[in-house]
Specification:
The complex is a heterodimer.
Chain A lengths: L5 H5 L5 H16 L7 H21 L7 H28 L1 H4 L6 H18 L1 H10 L9 H27 L3 H15 L16 H4 L3 H13 L5 H32 L1
Chain B lengths: L3 E15 L6 H9 L8 E15 L3 E6 L5 H9 L6 E6 L3 E4 L12 H11 L4 H15 L14 H13 L5 E5 L7 H16 L3 E5 L3 H7 L2 E6 L2 E6 L1 H13 L2
Parallel strand pairs in B: 3-7, 3-8, 5-6, 6-7
Antiparallel strand pairs in B: 1-2, 1-4, 8-9
The chains are: A mainly alpha, B alpha/beta.
Chain lengths: 262, 250
């Protein structure tokens, strides 16, 4: 194999045509035979947001201002995160016959899957706008942070997806482990609740959560109109870079071995 | 002296086979608990050993040998799917690794859409596909079926489309792995004729096959593998003779 600069290799920058074709394949397979098509991408998180809203607002009587917007601005990125990690985990093993017949960078499969989910993520953003209109929330300039955080969450998902995907080649119960992790992770991350609702003594746990501060940021940007502090950005960035360095290292060590093991 | 486009320098390839490879976390944890980190005995299976080989521009090489003798492994090493365990492999020029025709075809997409998908998977650019699109479509000869999902294709049609894409993408080196076993006789002949044309244009062809007639008719060189080594490397006639002596008589 010829030498490629690390970033070019990691993000498959020389294989844009490949990525584009894989993404368009994913989208076509997903939507070609469905009646509502892209609408499902919006409907699923939106309907679960409504369910959570009804339960927490009217049954459990949570008294948080603008609770529907809070749930939704967290749940939409969370839906992306979950789908990205799930398909990132499975795609290398799932494409075993392809990787065994064609010299293909395995990370291209993970990247294109996650990019497909990211497109869906972007397409479901209008729901947040709709809820803002309904709840008469005026978006502030702080909303710009939302888009930066989306980018960082994408990177974080790519790194984690690769790590899980490579591990899945070695341990076939990785799929269940990921499902289990995600179940707890959902409650350990401020998706349905605001981070300030967590007792002060436990708030440090947020920093130990790879996406904890990121999701706090989504709320800050969309609901609280708050600018994130430098330390918060630093933590998000540190997790992001750390995960991706680990993923890159793992990929470099394992990219030939996994194909022989598959 | 013709230029070497593929060069193997003392290449060996072995695989680890694990007798009880820990497939699940449970097994790993159980082993760790019993402090048996290295209990699963690994065996090395050597498929190719100390191979020195030069293939020159414009060669049409037939690769022969019994099943499991490392012919596919050789092609995977050339195309870069595998890395050699020892030694060095140098290649010059773009390779079309056709270990399987229609690699990555998506059953729900149409034949037309799969042309682009397949070409991108094989590592070719959009411009190239656009330029060669008409020729690909003409060669595949699928008519209206081209707009049908390939789920509805017969295996012969799939091979036709896959071969059409592969043959028109201007690769300098083409690797074929027994792919012509499928498809009807007429199409097989058409494919071999196309391969022969590509060879006449100066491309390097490597064809793994079990059919001596194909080697005699098309190849300029034949390499026979047996038990991890090259046992014969020379003219097509000599190769077929050695192959027959070794395997057909037994």
């Amino acid at each position: 194999m010829r030498y490629m600069p690390p970033l070019t290799d990691y993000f498959c920058l020389r294989r844009k045509f490949l990525l584009q074709n894989l993404i368009s394949r994913n989208l076509k397979i997903r939507y070609r035979k469905s009646l509502l098509g892209m609408m499902w991408t919006v409907l699923i998180p939106a309907s679960s947001a409504v369910v959570y809203y009804v339960i927490f607002k009217f049954v459990m009587k949570v008294t948080v201002e603008n609770y529907l917007l809070l749930i939704l601005s967290g749940l939409i990125p969370w839906t992306f995160f979950v789908s990205a990690l799930n398909s990132g985990t499975e795609t290398i093993v799932g494409n075993y016959s392809l990787l065994n017949k064609v010299p293909l960078p395995p990370q291209a499969l993970v990247l294109s899957d996650i990019m497909t989910h990211f497109l869906n993520f972007m397409l479901s953003l209008p729901v947040i706008a709709v809820v803002m209109v309904i709840t008469e929330t005026v978006p502030g300039v702080t909303l710009l942070q939302y888009f930066v955080l989306m980018g960082l969450l994408f990177l974080q998902s790519y790194g984690l997806g690769l790590i899980f995907g490579i591990s899945y080649v070695y341990f076939r119960d990785m799929r269940f482990v990921v499902a289990l992790i995600l179940q707890f992770w959902f409650y350990l991350t401020p998706v349905m609740y605001a981070s300030h609702m967590v007792p002060e003594d436990f708030r440090f746990l947020l920093w130990l959560n790879p996406v904890g501060v990121t999701f706090e940021g989504f709320h800050a940007a969309a609901v609280d109109h708050r600018w994130l502090g430098a330390n918060e950005w630093l933590i998000i960035l540190a997790w992001c870079l750390g995960t991706n360095f680990l993923a890159y290292g793992l990929l470099q060590r394992q990219k030939y071995r996994i194909i022989e093991l598959l | 002296m013709k230029q070497a486009v593929i060069e193997f320098k003392n290449v060996s390839k072995s695989f680890q086979t694990w007798h009880d490879r820990p497939e699940s976390l449970k097994t790993v944890l159980a082993q760790m608990a019993k402090l048996q980190f290295s209990s699963s005995h690994r065996d090395q299976v050597t498929v190719l050993e100390n191979i020195d080989l030069q293939i020159h521009r414009g060669d049409f090489v037939g690769i022969m040998g019994r099943n499991g003798v490392g012919k596919s492994t050789l092609l995977k090493l050339i195309s870069g799917i595998y890395r050699p365990s020892h030694g060095k492999i140098l290649t010059h020029g773009r390779i079309a690794p056709l270990l399987e025709l229609g690699a990555g075809f998506a059953t729900e997409l149409t034949g037309y859409e799969n042309i682009f998908l397949n070409a991108s998977i094989l590592g070719f650019s959009r411009d190239l596909v656009r330029r060669r699109l008409d020729e690909i479509i003409e060669f595949a000869d699928l008519k209206q079926a081209l707009d049908q999902p390939v789920r509805n294709y017969s295996s012969g049609m799939l091979v036709r489309l896959g071969f059409a894409v592969a043959a028109h993408l201007d690769a300098e080196i083409l690797l074929f792995d027994e792919i012509l076993a499928v498809g009807d006789v007429g199409f097989q002949a058409k494919c071999l004729k196309k391969i022969d044309e590509l060879h006449a244009e100066g491309r390097t062809i490597i064809l793994v096959t079990h059919t001596p007639e194909q080697v005699e008719k098309f190849c300029t060189r034949c390499i026979v593998f047996n038990q991890r080594h090259i046992v014969q490397d020379g003219s097509a006639q000599d190769g077929v003779r050695v192959y027959n002596e070794l395997f057909a008589g037994a």
